[in-house]
Amino acid sequence: MPEAVLFDLDGTLADTAPDLGGALNRLLSEQGREPLPMERLRRHVSSGARGMIGAGLGITPADAAYADLQQRFLAIYLDSLCVGTRLFDGMTDHLAELDARCIPWGIVTNKSQRFAIPLLEGLALRQRCACIVCGDSAQRAKPHAHPMQLASAVIGIAAAGCIYVGDDERDMISGRAAGMKTVVAGWGYLGDGKPPTDWGADGIATTPQDILGIAGASR
Fold this sequence. Notes:
The protein has 219 residues and is an alpha/beta fold. The protein is built from nine helices and eight strands.
């Protein structure tokens, strides 16, 4: 059994696609473009503004127009952080089980604090988290090991006693680099790159209730 469980935020703990997708479609409308269906956008959510703008407008940070579009997208999103966002099915019960077992849990996300903190407040989770490590909290963002190392230090539990759950390959890279067990959130966005079976994780959870079983079996 792990001593602590750490979660990615977007696509693992919470389904933020409705609000991120909504922000992108508002941006597309401002640009005179047609909205895109959520099914097309979901796999890009874990890549943040870069992924969403790339999916919607076909541009990258190297394009001259990117910076202004990014700032506008983020401003729209900040205005509607927790409208359609919800915890994934089964996550409420899983967090309650962790609390009942006195297993601390926290968040390690590349999302900036100005978005992550109010989002967790909107989900009534901020005070329950043992740690909240954001993209601008650590010296380096995932896939670097530092966010995981910082989370380990904040909760006072060695990385080897922690399990990290995420829905992107960089989550597994970051967790492994810090010496943590890693579990893929099979219900998450999962990107459009290599399949999760090739990410080198200790297991793939179909539901949040699978996490502790995988963590125990991997020891």
